[in-house]
Specification:
The protein starts with a strand and ends in an 8-residue tail after the last helix. The strands form 2 sheets. It has a 5-stranded parallel beta sheet, with no helix packed on it. 24% of the residues lie in helices and 19% in strands. By secondary structure, the protein is an alpha/beta fold.
Length: 232
């Protein structure tokens, strides 16, 4: 059985889908996803960036084809589920479509090499939209009280980033894909939500603390539970 899994979306969307993707593993499994997320997909026999497949032209460009689709016995797709023109163009292929924003039944887990947690906090004060960002000065106020790790080097490989995050005592961040990454490696997470719905978008796991529009003091109290405060 050759099965193709197609999962578009942002970093957090793909991470939330990892349990469903892995549970669909077949004798041969190929996963097409955004390029940046490919290092996180560890179970597949092969991964490809959606942008390299020509998939995005089907149903858009005249006579657009993706010959690789013809080589699979089954295709599970989170791509094109809301695009009638795409679904019509691939109607002759063994597609099963899933809602793009389907929520996971189990929290995602990304396996990383075992390591001891070190006594430092990671603060990631960014997201995909300024509307989702807690004020930067608030993050600075929290950082002043913590043994905070400042990483000035860019880590492009998300799996390498996951391995580093897994060594921290606590991670503090907005509603972002990197917050989902931190939760998926088991690091205690304080996820701050200011405009989006945490019931839909929050990282999953019993080690995740979700705070909606918190004060600096509330974030510090949450940090205190992880024993990373220098002082209150």
């Amino acid at each position: 059985m050759r099965r193709l899994l197609i999962r578009p979306g942002a970093i957090g969307d793909v991470i939330l889908s990892l349990p469903a993707l892995e549970s669909a593993k077949a004798d041969y499994t190929e996963v097409w996803a955004p390029r940046i997320t490919l290092p996180l997909i560890r179970f597949a026999d092969r991964t490809r960036a959606i942008a390299d497949t020509g998939l995005d032209l089907i149903g858009v460009a005249e006579n657009a084809k993706c010959p690789a689709l013809e080589t699979f016995d089954e295709i599970y797709s989170w791509y094109g589920s809301a695009r009638p023109e795409f679904r019509e163009a691939v109607a002759h292929l063994p597609f099963t479509f899933f809602p793009a924003q389907s929520l996971p039944k189990t929290p995602p887990r990304i396996e990383v090499p075992p390591s001891h947690r070190l006594d430092f906090a990671i603060i990631h004060p960014y997201s995909s939209s300024p509307k989702k960002d807690w004020p930067l000065e608030n993050f600075h106020a929290v950082a002043a009280q913590l043994k905070t790790e400042w990483c000035h080097d860019r880590i492009d490989d998300l799996y390498e980033l996951a391995c580093w995050i897994s060594t921290a005592s606590v991670y503090i961040g907005n509603d972002s894909g990197i917050s989902h990454l931190a939760a998926a490696v088991g690091t205690p997470v304080i996820a701050i939500f200011v405009s989006t719905d945490p019931l839909i978008w929050a990282p999953r796991g019993d080690h995740v603390t979700v705070l909606e529009n918190p004060s600096v003091a509330e974030v510090l109290r949450a940090c205190a539970q992880h024993q990373v405060l220098k002082s209150l």
